[in-house]
Amino acid sequence: MSLDMTYFQDMEAKIPHGKVRTRFAPSPTGYMHVGNLRTALYTWLIARHNQGTFILRIEDTDQGRLVEGATDVIYRTLAECGLDHDEGPDIGGPVAPYIQSERRDTYGKYARLLVERGHAYYCFCEKAESEEDSGEFNRGDDPCRALDPAEAQARVDAGEPYVIRQKIPHGGTTTFHDAIFGAITVENDTLDDQVLLKRDGLPTYNFANVIDDHLMGITHVVRGSEYLSSAPKYNLLYEGFGWEVPTYVHCSPVMRDQHNKMSKRHGDPSYEDLRDQGFLTQAILNYVALLGWSPKGDQAEQEVFSLSELVDAFDLSGISKSPAIFDIEKLTHFNALYLRAMTPEAFHAVAEPYIRQSVKNPALDTAEIAALLQARCEKLTDIPEKVDFFDALPDYDAELFTNKKSKTNPEVSKSMLEAAIPMLEGLDAWTTDAIHDGLIALAEQLGVKNATLMWPVRIAAAGKSVTPGGAVEVCHILGREETLRRLRLGLEKLS
C-alpha cells in the first residue's frame, strides 16, 4: 500500500527558507547545566549574528526522564539570560507544534515513508534495550532486514508489535562535514541499524531531531561533540529522504578537570546554582561564551563582552576543537569585574537582598553599606558575612586591638578610646566629614599616626579585624548613639 504523498508535500510547503534558522532543543530534565547553557548561547548567537531566526523546541520523547516544572526552568533561564526566541511552544510559529510529544503522528508517517524508500524496515524481534545499546557491530544482520516488504506489511496490518529500524548500507563509507572538525569519514559497517520508531509509536531522539530539524528549516545544528558518532547515521537519514544536510556545529565538552566532563551526577553547578552562589547572569554568560570560543581580529584580546558585543564578534571559526575546562576562579574574576563596573545604583539593587540577610535593622542605610562593598566583594554571597556586624556587635577578643602596623596594643587602644568617645559625643553633626575631620584632628592633638587612633575605634565599632570601609564609614552608618555604645563596651573590655 503506497503512501499518500500529499501530506509530505504540504509539510514541505510550510518550511521557511532564505535565512539562517537555529534551534535550541533541550530535554525538560529540570537542570540547565553549563554545557547546555553554552549550546543555547552559541545557537542564539549564530542566529542573531546572521539576522536569522532562533527557535526553542522541547524534546520530550524520552518520557522516563521528564521532570515536572523543568520546562519552566528552561523558559526562566533563557529569559534571564536575554536569549529571546522567535518561535517556540509559548509563542507559536509557522512550523508548530514545537514540543516533540505533540508531533507524534508526524514521526510515524516519516518512518513509514523511509521504509517505502528502502532506507528503513519493520523489525518484529523481541530485543531488550540493553541489547540495543551493547555497541556490538560485528553481530549478524537483523533477521527482519531481509523480510519481503509485502510480508512485513501484512504482519504490521495484522497488529503484530514492531519497531522501525534504519537500514544502514552494507559496505562503503559515509562522509559528513562539520564546521569545527571538518570532513569525517566512517565505514558503514561500524554503524548499527538503529531504532527510529519505538513500539509505543514514539520516535527515538536520533530520528525525531532529524525530522524536526528538516521540517523546521534548521540551517545550523549546534550540539555537543558526543553526537559526532551519530552524525553519519543522521546524514544517511537526510540522504534517504533526499533532503539537504544542515551545517553541523559540534562543540567540544565543558570539563570539570582534565579527565572529567561536568555533570549533574557529580554535583557540578547548573546556571541556577551559579546564580544562587552569587554570580551575576551577565558574568556567567560572558564566561560561558569564552568556554571553547575565542574572538578574532581586533577583539582577540578582549575579555569582557556584553551580549550585543558577542553578537557582533561571534564567528564559527572561533570555536575550538579542544575541550574547555570550567574554572570557578576564572568565573569569580569575571564576576568581580562586572560588580565593579556597575553604577552604584545598579550595584545597590542587586546587593540589597544580600545585605538584608544579615542587616535587619531598617534604620541602617543599605545604599551606604553597598557603597562600601562594591569594590570589596567578588560574589554577592560574600556580602552577608562581611556586613553582619552592623546589626549586632559580634563577641570579639581584646587581642584584636593589638596591631603592629598601626602601632596599637591594649594599653594604647584604651587611651585612644578614652579620647575618641568625648570627641565623638561633642560633634555638632554626625556626617562622614565631621567624623573624619574630628578623628584626624584628635590624632594630631594626641601626637599619634592616624592609624593608631582609627584602628581601635574601628575594632570597637565593628568587633572584626576586616571590614568593608574604615572607622569613619562604619561609625557614620551605625549612627552616633550605637557607635558610642560600642566604643564604651570596647573600653570596658580593655579596662
Structure commentary:
Helix content is 44%, strand content 9%. The chain has helices spanning 6-14, 34-49, 70-81, 104-116, 129-132, 149-157, 205-215, 231-241, 271-276, 281-289, 307-313, 328-341, 344-358, 366-373, 383-387, 410-425, 432-446, 450-462, 471-478, 480-494; strands spanning 21-24, 53-56, 120-123, 163-166, 173-178, 182-187, 195-197, 220-224, 247-251, 254-255, 324-325. It has a three-stranded antiparallel beta sheet with strand order 3-4-7. Helix 8 links the parallel strand 8 and strand 9 (247-251).
Short description:
Helix content is 44%, strand content 9%. It has helices at 6-14, 34-49, 70-81, 104-116, 129-132, 149-157, 205-215, 231-241, 271-276, 281-289, 307-313, 328-341, 344-358, 366-373, 383-387, 410-425, 432-446, 450-462, 471-478, 480-494, and strands spanning 21-24, 53-56, 120-123, 163-166, 173-178, 182-187, 195-197, 220-224, 247-251, 254-255, 324-325.
Percent helix, as a range, is 40-55%
Largest sheet: 3 strands, antiparallel
Distance between the termini: 103 Å
Poorly predicted segments: 133-137
Overall morphology: elongated
Trace the largest sheet across and list its strands: 3-4-7
Detail the topology: elements first, then pairings.
Layout: H1 6-14, E1 21-24, H2 34-49, E2 53-56, H3 70-81, H4 104-116, E3 120-123, H5 129-132, H6 149-157, E4 163-166, E5 173-178, E6 182-187, E7 195-197, H7 205-215, E8 220-224, H8 231-241, E9 247-251, E10 254-255, H9 271-276, H10 281-289, H11 307-313, E11 324-325, H12 328-341, H13 344-358, H14 366-373, H15 383-387, H16 410-425, H17 432-446, H18 450-462, H19 471-478, H20 480-494
Parallel strand pairs: 1-2, 8-9, 10-11
Antiparallel strand pairs: 3-4, 4-7, 5-6
